[in-house]
Task: inverse folding
């Protein structure tokens, strides 16, 4: 009888130990499941490699006079912002909202300036403000100045499953001299192209294509002006 009692007691101890071990493992598993997950990295977009990727585009000699491209200004947004923005035009067209998990590799104004420089540079030398000043100091005629404001650069939804990339530029062309700048012409370029998908990736692709088209139209306008 005493032997049976000891056996029962030992079995009870083993059972309690097993239960404690199981409870500990459950707590460990529960603890692992509630640990915070690392934040999802935002997708980063740019305008792509552009036409003729891998080739260096050189301006044709004396094809067009040089132009001094001023820094593109972003209207209505912080210059350093790289947010990828969208509008729900069917709900509130006046509200710009950023995609939480997507952004541009650089502020849109810098990307737009790069697109303009690449397009204009196919037929002329594109100078910065410092380059233009250097030409003046050497006694040469200062180049035409091109100033561009990026007034709209957003993924616009006209319906939940229908959207487009919208780019609007305001361009001002002026002749520069030691006395200042003389206005030659100004124009607004608006390009809206449909997005293939109603998400950040579709909006980024549509905006990149619209930016390249706007740069192409602006370059053609400059050529028409003879500047």
Result:
């Amino acid at each position: 009888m005493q032997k049976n009692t000891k056996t029962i007691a030992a079995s009870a101890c083993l059972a309690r130990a097993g239960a404690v071990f199981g409870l500990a493992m459950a707590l460990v598993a529960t603890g692992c499941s509630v640990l915070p997950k690392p934040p999802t990295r935002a997708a980063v977009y740019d305008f792509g490699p552009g036409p003729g990727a891998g080739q260096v585009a050189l301006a044709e000699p004396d094809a067009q006079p040089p132009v001094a491209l001023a820094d593109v200004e972003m209207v209505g947004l912080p210059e350093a912002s790289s947010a990828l923005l969208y509008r729900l035009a069917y709900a509130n067209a006046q509200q710009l909202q950023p995609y939480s998990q997507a952004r541009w590799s650089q502020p849109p104004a810098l990307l737009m300036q790069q697109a303009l420089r690449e397009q204009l540079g196919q037929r002329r030398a594109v100078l910065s403000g410092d380059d233009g000043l250097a030409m003046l100091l050497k006694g040469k005629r200062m180049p035409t100045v091109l100033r561009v404001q990026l007034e709209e650069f957003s993924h616009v939804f006209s319906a939940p499953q229908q959207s487009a990339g919208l780019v609007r530029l305001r361009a001002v062309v002026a002749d520069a001299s030691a006395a200042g700048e003389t206005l030659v012409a100004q124009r607004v370029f608006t390009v809206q192209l449909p997005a293939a998908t109603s998400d950040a990736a579709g909006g980024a692709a549509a905006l990149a294509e619209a930016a390249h088209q706007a740069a192409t139209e602006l370059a053609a306008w400059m050529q028409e002006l003879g500047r």
User: Anything to note?
Assistant: The chain has a mean pLDDT of 81. Residues 71 and 113 are 7 Å apart (CA to CA).
